[in-house]
């Protein structure tokens, strides 16, 4: 159970001396991949804001300038989470912000498995032990409550000190949203065991339309227990402008944690550059242009993710229906005999094979803390929106993006590549919008 047991080690473990260690005895370990890229042009108004702030000579204060803090407060208040100025902090990206929170809390860290690729390195960098917990069958993002409690028991029995649970209400990599009752059970278990909860809500504003998905923040359920973290490069900013914000609990403990995190960000130079701070302030205020772009982008990625999901199921693979974000988590284990004949035997092989075959990133599940032996990967929708700025703009503005020639061509390419692996029959029949038909319901089947 302890990380000294090789069977419990995650793929981000590094060898002595700081050199990259092997994944199952071969290949270098990378900390990537980053968040799925938007595949869309930068909002023109945002470009102007960044350019206008580039001439500012003075540095921004640690934690963000007052205008940014106030914009973040309004952002969370519009989502039903009141926030005091002294309990809001901004940083140049989610990774340094999670690093500071983890350092301030101390102790061992528990994570759902799989989880976003950037969560584990923060704890490892601090020398903390990380314990993955299986997720429920119906979703990712949160640990199964019973497995979570058993993990806590075993960690403590072996001398561990679990203090932090990181979870996600709109999950990367699985593109799922935990049902409110499942989320409540997981957070209730953490509260009963005295753990602090960090809720990664990076993708909460990318829930796909027409999916009947209900999203809650655990901060609404247990307000004194939860720190909310949002990476703005999820729904609002391009990856070239990394910014993230944290909202701390409205308690004395929350104020103390916010102060410690701010101290750590100051000591490590985790300060936003003026152009990035201006961009973050602009998008957090959610003006008409920002809201319109987000709405259009979410609908576009949702439509493409749904089409990609249908192709995966038609080829014989499995995937939970995508509910958020701009990606799909795929399980090709049903195609293992065929993939084995092609020399693909684990997640690293699958990543290499599909990345070369599709001409787009296909990071294996081991990048997300999943079993390296499993044939799982994450496919992004951004590369399917077009190959040129003109094509991507057309995808964004089209009322029927799946009918655009360039989108149809790229989706067909992916479907053909997966179909060849699965030896898809010409008479397989149609597949419904949620995987209904000859191939079943997808992941849950």
Task: Describe the strand arrangement of the main beta sheet, using strand numbers.
Answer: 1-7-6-5-4-2-3
Class per helix and strand makeup? alpha/beta
Oligomerization category of the chains in this entry: single chain
Please state the average pLDDT score.
88
Q: Helical stretch count?
A: 14
Radius of gyration (Å): 21 Å
The rough form would be described as globular
The profile of the biggest β sheet is: 7 strands, mixed
Helix content: 25-40%
Task: Give the low-confidence spans.
Answer: 1-29, 424-445
Question: What is the H/E order?
Answer: HHEHEHEHEHEHEEHHHEHHEHH
Q: What is the number of E strands?
A: 9
Q: State the separation between the terminal residues, measured CA to CA.
A: 30 Å
**How much strand content do the residues show?**
5-15%
Folded structure, characterized:
There is one protein chain. With 445 residues, the chain is an alpha/beta fold. 38% of the residues lie in helices and 11% in strands. The protein is built from 14 helices and 9 strands. It has a 7-stranded mixed beta sheet, with helices on both faces. Strands 8-9 form a two-stranded antiparallel ribbon. Helix 1 runs antiparallel to helix 9 (274-284), helix 2 packs parallel to helix 9 and helix 10 (288-314) packs parallel to helix 14. The longest helix is centred in the C-terminal third of the chain and has 27 residues, at 288-314. The two termini are 30 Å apart. Mean pLDDT is 88; it is low at 1-29 and 424-445.
């Amino acid at each position: 159970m302890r990380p000294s047991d090789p069977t419990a080690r995650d793929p981000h473990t590094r060898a002595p001396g700081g050199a990259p260690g092997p994944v199952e005895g071969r290949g270098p370990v990378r900390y990537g991949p980053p968040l799925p890229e938007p595949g869309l042009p930068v909002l023109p108004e945002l470009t102007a804001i960044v350019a206008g702030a580039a001439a500012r000579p003075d540095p921004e204060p640690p934690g963000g300038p007052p205008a940014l803090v106030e914009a973040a407060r309004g952002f969370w208040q519009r989502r039903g989470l009141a926030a005091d100025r002294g309990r809001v902090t901004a940083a140049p990206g989610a990774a340094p912000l999670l690093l500071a929170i983890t350092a301030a809390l101390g102790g061992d860290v528990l994570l759902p498995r799989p989880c976003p690729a950037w969560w584990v390195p923060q704890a490892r960098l601090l020398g903390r032990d990380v314990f993955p917990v299986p997720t429920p069958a119906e979703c990712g993002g949160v640990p199964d409550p019973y497995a979570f409690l058993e993990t806590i028991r075993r960690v403590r029995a072996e001398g561990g000190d679990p203090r932090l649970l990181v979870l996600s209400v709109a999950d990367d990599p699985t593109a799922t949203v935990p049902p409110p009752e499942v989320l409540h059970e997981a957070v209730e278990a953490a509260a009963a065991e005295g753990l602090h909860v960090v809720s990664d809500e990076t993708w909460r504003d990318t829930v796909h339309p027409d999916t009947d998905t209900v999203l809650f923040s655990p901060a609404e359920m247990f307000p004194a227990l939860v720190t909310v973290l949002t990476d703005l490069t999820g729904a609002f900013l391009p990856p070239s402008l990394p910014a993230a914000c944290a909202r701390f609990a409205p308690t004395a403990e929350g104020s103390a944690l916010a102060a410690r995190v701010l101290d750590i960000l100051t000591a490590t130079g985790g300060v936003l550059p003026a152009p990035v701070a201006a961009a973050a302030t602009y998008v957090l205020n959610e003006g008409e242009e920002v809201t319109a772009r987000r709405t259009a982008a979410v609908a576009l990625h949702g439509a493409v993710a749904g089409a990609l999901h249908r192709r995966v199921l038609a080829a014989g693979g499995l995937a939970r229906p995508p509910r958020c974000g701009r990606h799909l988590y795929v399980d090709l284990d049903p195609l293992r005999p065929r993939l084995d004949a092609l020399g693909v035997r684990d997640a690293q092989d699958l990543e290499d094979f599909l990345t070369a075959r599709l001409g787009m990133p296909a990071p294996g599940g081991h990048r997300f803390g999943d079993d390296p032996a499993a044939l799982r990967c994450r496919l992004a929708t951004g590369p399917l929106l077009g190959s040129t700025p003109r094509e991507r703009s057309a995808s964004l503005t089209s009322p029927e993006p799946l009918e655009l020639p360039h989108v149809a061509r790229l989706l067909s390419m992916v479907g053909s590549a997966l179909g060849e692996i699965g030896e898809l029959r010409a008479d397989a029949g149609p597949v419904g919008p949620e995987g209904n038909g000859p191939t079943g319901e997808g992941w849950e089947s």
